[in-house]
Design a protein that fits this description.
By secondary structure, the chain is mainly alpha-helical. It has helices at residues 3-23, 40-59, 64-67, 80-96, 114-136, 144-154, 158-163, 179-186; strands at 104-107, 110-113. The two termini are 27 Å apart.
């Protein structure tokens, strides 16, 4: 993908996740998600904290050690949707700055161009949009181009995902599976 496509798909993925955050009813924040150890609040907190890292790493050039534990624990407070909105806008703005996607960022596994980091963040948002949709009973079908972009991002390092302990083992998708189904099966989720 070129820079414009990366920024567009990233922004669309965050906006889609945001629509699901705003659809969470007050009685659903403690509901389980497809990641059985996470509640809806935990899931939204996870993705919100990830967005909070972006300006520090991309715009400010901070290293993981500089940020430290600033975004550990609960970041949502009493206004989860509002905190999400502000974090998402700040992340999109940081990646969208002139030249930002060409900058190096220091991640837990080493230095990488912000372009690759942005694409990873897009894929994570797509997968977690499905997780949140399932958890709250929202529409689980996602735009095909986002599912395709996330699948392309995840496929190269999929073999190591289950070994990390963060994902369930991959499942064989049906022969006629669309890209969303293939993505979910790759990550051990039952569509």
């Amino acid at each position: 993908m070129n820079h414009d496509e990366i920024l567009r798909t990233h922004g669309e993925a965050l906006a889609l996740f945001g629509t699901r955050v705003h659809a969470v009813r007050n009685d659903q924040w403690d509901a389980p998600t497809p990641r059985t150890e996470w509640s809806v609040r935990d899931l939204v907190n996870h993705l919100t904290a990830e967005q909070l890292w972006v300006p520090r790493l991309v715009r400010d050039g901070a290293a993981i050690t500089d940020v430290g534990s600033d975004f550990d624990g609960g970041v949502l407070g009493d206004d989860p949707a509002g905190v999400w909105d502000r974090a998402a806008v700040a992340a999109v703005a940081a990646f969208s700055e002139r030249g930002a996607l060409d900058r190096p960022v220091q991640l837990s596994y080493g230095s990488q161009r912000a372009e690759a980091y942005c694409t990873q963040m897009m894929a994570d948002a797509v997968v977690h949009t499905w997780d949140l949709s399932r958890a709250i009973g929202a529409e689980e079908r996602l735009p095909g181009h986002l599912a395709t972009a996330a699948l392309r991002e995840m496929e190269p390092y999929a073999p190591g995902l289950a070994a990390s302990g963060l994902f369930a083992p991959a499942m064989e998708p049906p022969a006629d599976a669309d890209d969303l189904t293939r993505l979910l099966c790759l990550l051990g989720r039952r569509p």
